[in-house]
Amino acid sequence: MQTPETSHPGRWWHAIDEGTRIQCDLCPRDCKLHEGQRGACFVRRNQSGRMELTTWGRSSGFCIDPIEKKPLNHFYPGSPILSFGTAGCNLACKFCQNWDISKSRDMDRLMDSARPEAIAEAAIRHGARSVAYTYNDPVIFAEYAIDTAAACSERGLFNVAVTAGYIHAEPRREFFQVMDAANVDLKAFTDDFYYRQCGAHLQPVLDTLAWIHHESDCWLEITTLLIPGLNDSDQELSSMTNWIARELGPDVPLHFTAFHPDWKMNDTPATPPAALQRARQIGLDNGLRYVYTGNVHDAAGGTTACPNCRKSLIVRDWYEIRQYDLTDTGSCPGCGVSIAGHFGHFTPAFGARRIPVRIAASSMPNP
Fold first, then answer.
1. What is the pLDDT of residue 348?
2. Same domain, yes or no: 96 and 17
3. How many CB atoms are located within 10 Å of the residue 242 CB?
4. 310 domain residue, yes or no
5. Residue 319 is assigned to a structural domain of this protein
6. Prior bond to 71 cis, omega within 30?
7. How far apart are CA 191 and CA 200, in angstroms?
8. Range of 48's domain?
9. pLDDT of amino acid 3
10. Is the domain of 78 the same as that of 181?
11. Which residues contact 135 (CB under 8 A, 6 or more apart)?
């Protein structure tokens, strides 16, 4: 019979205090754990003097989503992607939009069990082109994500990470070298915001963004959830977009998405569409070629335009693709300029559907 949680040897740790504690080396929190104690993410613990991941092979659910929901607009647009997560998180964002999963301390909510091979088989069976590690941050279940990514790659599937990028250098290298694409949350552009609102720091995230773009083959897009009065000033947005253009280049897509009141910020108003449009314009003015708005109906903010002739190439309404004029090689048919990203032959888009998927518990071995 399957137990409520499945322990698996954890990586990236070392013994301290003459072996009385261990230190987790996965993320910049550097949690120091006594016997039986869990880290801030809640899913990594000291068991008999060794690190264990308590959620390997356990998921809060599997769904087929449109890839635009990650959001990724330049990685095989319109294609379906099998998405899943586990529980817990290594940040403490007061505005978390998935708090029921990421803040969960209830391992019983991990109802679906699946070995990596079963996840790959389910993705193929349901016509997905990729598998996304999402809903909560895959950094904290990196061992499970890496094992699953290997199984998916063997079956010709792409792997996508949706993450806050709060991870140390060594596990970062191992994690992103098996990912084909990533959307990284750049939650703000001040350390004060990260510290007060997320219990973290900005610089490790900037380091991750730079490393992915310059040192890996992983396609990168960035998302910033725009929260009224906290990270949406013209000055901060200008600093952020200037940094992206200077350090990463103008071709990295940036998504500004709308906040809705949730978790510990129920008194903060939702982001007005005009604020997203203002942020998008600041990014464009600072030299970024692909800046999008999300979580709102905004045809202009969802459109991929040719940076040369300004022809509308992919017109989106939320997660729906209304028009697709890009060539199979990812070029503008009008002027021939190549669009940054990964494209191919376009088939009718998956659309905005969300299809729950169950993977048989028998795919897990008996303990």
1. 84
2. no
3. 16
4. no
5. no
6. yes
7. 8
8. 8-55
9. 40
10. yes
11. 60, 61, 83, 84, 85, 98, 101, 102, 162
The label of the residue with tokens 């022809």 reads 311
State how far the Cα of 292 lies from the Cα of 344, in Å rounded to an integer: 21
Q: Tell me how long the chain is.
A: 367
Cβ-based neighbours of 180, under 8 Å, separated by 6 or more:
75, 130, 158, 159, 160, 217, 218, 219, 342
Distance CA 252, CA 182 (A): 11
The Cα–Cα gap between 358 and 63 comes to 8
CA 44 to CA 364: how far, in whole Å?
20
The owner of tokens 């998302």 is 223
pLDDT mean values, one per 10 residues, the chain (367 residues): 63 96 98 97 96 92 95 97 94 80 52 87 96 96 98 98 98 98 98 97 98 98 97 98 98 96 83 97 98 95 97 95 96 98 92 87 44
Both structure tokens of 154: 């063997």
| CATH number assigned to the domain comprising residue 287 | 3.20.20.70
- CA dist 242 and 220 (Å) reads 17
Residue 169 structure tokens: 């250098």
Give the sheet arrangement for strand 50-53, strand by strand.
8-9, 50-53, 44-47
11 C-beta neighbours (distance < 10 Å), count: 16
- Number of folded domains that form the chain: 2
For residues 184 and 287, membership in a common domain is answered with yes
